Amino acid sequence: MTTVVLADDEALLRKAMASLLPLEGEITVLAEASDGAEAVEATLRHRPDVLVVDLEMPGVDGLGAVAEIRRTRPDQVILMLTRHARPGVLRKALKLGVQGFVSKSAEPAHIATVIGTLHGGKRWIDPDVSALAVVDDCPLTDREVDVLRATGDGYSVADIAGQLHLAEGTVRNYLSNAMQKTQTRTRHEAARYAREHDWL
């Protein structure tokens, strides 16, 4: 039997997976989480065999949750669900030790199979996820993406600097570069442009 914690902010999808995964394999869902902070808390409390975590969640996102969990449980097995797999995100996740990547549109039977594969000590990256990640048409650096994402979430330059442990001048430089690359006039336009192109 493989124990799992499910973390996804889309309640309908999370509840469906919690119901369907045990039907597809020898899987027990120990807990569900609706955001990154809950994912960290549930994983550290329940110590599952596999954490199944959505990449994009409000507040602490999937990568942030993984980084936090890794500090306490460096060997935690993690399967990340994603709709968009930018190369930078894939690289960051692999550096953090994420063992598996699956598209959020995958069938529960496939997700259950991958959970079993990861629990068996192997890795798994869905071909469609890796194909998306190889097509790198995003001109933005990882840091430019970070500051634009925070801008899109409504944070000020000072807030972004504090969050990312950068000087405010450095944040402004990243934003200026991003505006040039997206040919936009404001940081909010740049963030909107980047979201429309699935770069964030």
Total domains:
2
Q: What is the first-to-last residue Cα distance?
A: 36 Å
Give a short account of the largest sheet: 6 strands, parallel
- The dominant shape is elongated
Which consecutive residue ranges, at least 5 long each, have pLDDT under 50? none
Provide the gyration radius in Å: 17 Å
CATH superfamily of the largest domain: Response regulator
Strand order of the largest sheet: 2-1-3-4-5-6
CATH topology of the largest domain, by name, is Rossmann fold
Beta-strand portion reads 15-25%
Integer average pLDDT: 90
Structural class call reads: alpha/beta
Number of strands: 6
Number of helices: 10
Characterise the protein shown here.
- This is Response regulator transcription factor.
- There is one protein chain.
- This protein has 2 domains: 2-134, Response regulator (Rossmann fold, 3-Layer(aba) Sandwich); 142-196, Orthogonal Bundle (Arc Repressor Mutant, subunit A).
- It is built from 10 helices and 6 strands, in the order E-H-E-H-E-H-E-H-E-H-E-H-H-H-H-H.
- The chain has helices at 11-24, 36-46, 62-72, 87-95, 108-119, 127-134, 142-152, 157-164, 168-182, 187-196, and strands at 2-7, 27-33, 50-54, 77-82, 100-103, 124-125.
- It has a 6-stranded parallel beta sheet.
- Strand 1, helix 1 (11-24) and strand 2 form a beta-alpha-beta unit.
- Helix 1 (11-24) crosses helix 5 (108-119), helix 2 (36-46) runs parallel beside helix 3 and helix 8 crosses helix 9.
- The longest helix has 15 residues, at 168-182.
